[in-house]
Amino acid sequence: MAADTPALPPIAILGAGSMGGAIARGLSRSGLAAGGVTTTNRSLARAAELEGLEGVTSLALEAQSTANTDAATAAGVVLVGVKPTMVPDLLREIAPVLRPGTIVVSLAAGVTVATFEEILGDGVAVLRSMPNTPALVGRGVTGLAAGSRADEGAVATVRRLFETVGSVVEVPESQIDALSTISGSGPAYFFLLVEEFTKAAVAKGFAQPEARLMAEQTFIGAAALLEASGDDPAELRRRVTSPKGTTERAIAVLQDARLDDVFAEATDAALARAKELAQGG
């Protein structure tokens, strides 16, 4: 932990599935959670996956029925990671034990800040988050929206928490669904491109292992170059695209396919579905 980085208060992660578990691991690595992290899961088997992490206490409802309230009672920050349909019941369960000034953060897609604030009442700061799966390897992007009772201090605390697993983008809640179509769904778009380039390589005579290696490492290497250079991606593309060369011919095909329209249409479709889910559809 950097000397100038404030420590985090005790943290509870209720419903520490894949995303909650990733955050627990990030907090453990960072050393920021000086007050400790308590995670809860339904089963002993799932809880066992987080046992042994430094600074993390992993509880199972199967063995300790009061695990959620026990964890929430002692926490300064509570992350709610259960399935969206389970959120209201969990909030009603923990509301009586939350201390004034507790920060509650939603990891649940489609559940609004208003739902949290209505159930939890005054004295609790609520934020809504939208992390993505690269958080599993510490390279996530998390969208963060503050509720009406979350002051600058609460936002700063939660930002530090999510920075243990990647980058943070602060947005108004009205933009959370739009953000999910880019950073939330974005890894799937990337994986699809790798799939298709692998297929193209196989069609050109390469064996599957070599095809996959070329596709994966080309994208991974290009991403690393983009990050390291700090240059605009359009500029990097121009450097690879020699005039009248092979890459220029390939880029022309992709541009003729109107990829700009395709990506706009895809993200619009994702946004429409996000709005349906928010309305219970």
UniProtKB/TrEMBL annotation:
It is an enzyme of class 1 (oxidoreductase). PROSITE patterns: P5CR. Keywords: Amino-acid biosynthesis, Cytoplasm, NADP, Oxidoreductase, Proline biosynthesis. The keyword NADP applies. It is found in: Cytoplasm. Its main location: cytoplasm. GO terms for cellular component: cytoplasm. This is Pyrroline-5-carboxylate reductase. It comes from Microbacterium trichothecenolyticum. The gene is proC.
